[in-house]
Amino acid sequence: MRQRLLDILLFMTMGLSVLSCNKGPDPLPGPSPQKEVVLNVDVILPSSIREQWAESVDMAMSALALAQKSVDNPVRLNLRYHNEDTEDLDALGYALTHPEAGADTCHAIVGPYYSNHASHILRYARSERLPVLMPVCTSVELQRIYANETYAWFLTESDITQCEIMIGAARAVGATDVALIYSDDTYGQSFKDWFAFYATEQDIHMAAEAPVAYKKGDNLRSFLQAADDAALGDKVFVLIALTDASLYEEVCRQLVDFPHLYPICANGSFESRVVQSWKDKSAFYLGLAPVGSASLGYPQSYKELHGHLPYYGEAQVYDALCLLALGKTHQMVNGDRCIIDGKQVTYLQSPYTIGLTDHMRAVVASSEGEETLWDAAGLTTAMNAIRAGKSVSLNGATGKLDFARDSYTNILNTTYMLWTMGEGNSTIEPVCYLSASGSNTEASVTAMWERDKKWEQVFSDTPVDHHLGPVGSRWAVVVSPSTTWSNYRHQADAFAMYQLLRHSGYDDDHIVLIVEDNLSNHPQNIYPGQIFVERGGGSAEDAGIMGEDVRKDAVVDYHFTELALEDLADIMTGNSSERLPHVIRPDAASNIFFFWSGHGGQREGPLWGDEDAVKYFGKQRIKDIVTTLRSQNRYRRMFFAIETCYSGRWGEALEGIPDVLVLTAANSYEPSKADVHDRDLGVYLSNAFARTFRDCIVEDNQITIYDLYKELAKTTTGSHVSIYNHQQYGSVYTENMEDYFLWRN
User: Fold this and answer.
1) Mean pLDDT lowest among 2-11, 61-70, 149-158, 654-663
2) Of 208, 615, 633, 646, which residue is most buried, by most CB within 10 angstroms?
């Protein structure tokens, strides 16, 4: 079995040839340089990683010295190390950005190593716009939050890409099933959030009901046995994404007892101690790690010098150090003149001024100048061009240094090495190199695994005739169970939906709005009395529907924490009381629209409260409410729009009930993702599902359910918008949203 899988993997690399690095001319000899320009760079790493990266750091420092040996005022990087495992990172962040009198200024930071630690440093660096270059902080959430911050440099793509490649690799070797073990932290969360999405995209069965979070010492036997038992085929690949190398050792030792389960491990497994833990074991083992570009020769040159492949992150730290020196050279030459995309960089907000990070951005923003390589000769060419006022097109140790155009600090193309264990399971053996672009020797992820063929739900076009009469009345229930500031988006989306309903013909007597309503006057709200959504401009906002403040004039019927879990049934079925005076009173001619925005859990979908409560509203409870309304002939049609993680659980629960349609932001296995992060408020303002839903209705309230689905599926990132029970509702191609929204442009 091991050899058969290896043969398939090796087939993936047919036609690929490893190119040696074009060394170019040697640096020109010249006179001794004049006074050095010293850049103090504080490097924050675990001591073990410092040791592993030492060879790559030495290579970068030597290459930079050679590249500048004949120039005046060469840039010298003064590296000052801090142990990430023992430092108080908040205290360190403050000290580096607020140096004591007489202390040397920190000009830049490299690190931290762990995504979990990065925010401790980034929050302090922001005030000074101190460049923070993070070689391997790959957390999706971290990168999304800091995506537009021009001082936060991410030199490896987020783990969305790695998760996709891992599942694609499993599919390429014939896997029928996948499962996931992840660390319960910021790093592991990325894989948890995207695992089901890419399994759905690749049409691979998920062998376990849900991924499992692993903590040191956990016994995984029941999870592994369940995955083995539930598998549709004989090859189940278990994706393992853990923060610490020692955890990989523990997990992989437990996998040995399950011959049909094959590990495919993420970043942190690419360490010598993990490799050694598999020595003399016969199990098949795959790993994936961001590495240097094989097409540009970095891993080959490194191995020739040091006798082994670079460790995880070494190519990224090499590029980080080179970018700092190149950026400082650009700053010395240009001063306050800093042109990016043809425009002078300016900052209106005090005390921000043009700094080192902007000159680094200017260097990487250009792609029209002479193409240069990562080695000493290439750096010589780059340095000379920059000193002459010319642009350069940089190739680093990691590959082409292409950065996202919104900030030029987020790398777009990372090279990954798919590797296995060598003979006797004692060494790492590359299988192939992969990248999103498929340049040179890196196989194209897009071409290999048909990345662009997005999964889409298939619908029958069978009309359903339940002899419905005309619409007599329309009722709406809007619920957000979230109560904390960090969950701002949930209440904001609920208020925005309320505003859309009011402008769509509903009066307050026909809407029940359930929100905690504690955002507008929250101590962290820098805009007291107001709640924002869609600030970037959407159809609803452009049409003047949402306005600046979605809280304005809203009538809140119930604060969430004032209600018991059972109260929603009384509200939905018209059972009013002194405590519940406002309920809906539908009859056989009524259409009911129901919107819920909050958190969800893997077992039963929507939660009754915030995520830390883990209190489910319940699949059976929502089904009981709807079947009661059905038995009492209290609705004509019902439409559920559910914006939570794992919202498909409710869709499944309501299948089979006539004239009920459920539209969810995610299927039963996926979390739903927040949309736009607001730097000033420090929160997400909205979810893409709710935002696009509003925009579509404003543009055309007669939009068909299918066209609404298509637009939602296209714009809702990271989860699969799903429709449930359409067989009991009617053709999605002809039925439209006018049943619930009357307002027109």
Assistant:
1) 2-11
2) 646
**Angle (nearest 5°) at CA 153 between 150 and 155:** 150
pTM of the model: 0.70
Cβ atoms of 333 and 386 within 8 Å: the answer is: yes
Average pLDDT along the chain:
85
Q: What are phi and psi of 211, to 5 degrees?
A: -60, 160
Class of domain 473-739: alpha beta
CATH topology for the 38-156+312-415 domain = Rossmann fold (3.40.50)
Confidence of residue 415 (pLDDT cuts 50, 70, 90): confident
Cα–Cα distance, 124 to 549 (Å, whole number): 31
Residues in the chain: 745
704: nearest Cα among 663, 669, 665: 663
Q: How far apart are CA 478 and CA 431, in angstroms?
A: 52
Q: Give helix 245-255 / helix 221-230 axis angle, nearest 10°.
A: 60
**3-state secondary structure string across 374-392:** CCHHHHHHHHHHHHCCCCE
The verdict on whether omega for the bond into residue 351 sits within 30 degrees of 0, i.e. cis, is yes
User: Domain 159-281, what fold?
Assistant: Rossmann fold (3.40.50)
Percent of the chain with pLDDT over 90: 52
Identical fold, 38-156+312-415 and 473-739: yes
For residues 394-412, one letter each, b for 16 or more C-beta atoms within 10 angstroms of the residue's C-beta and e for the rest, the string is bbbbbbbbbbeeebbbbbe
- Residues 56, 739: Cα–Cα separation, whole Å: 64
Cross-strand pairs, 478: 513, 595
As a whole number of angstroms, the distance between CA 236 and CA 176 comes to 6
Looking at residue 426, its pLDDT comes to 57
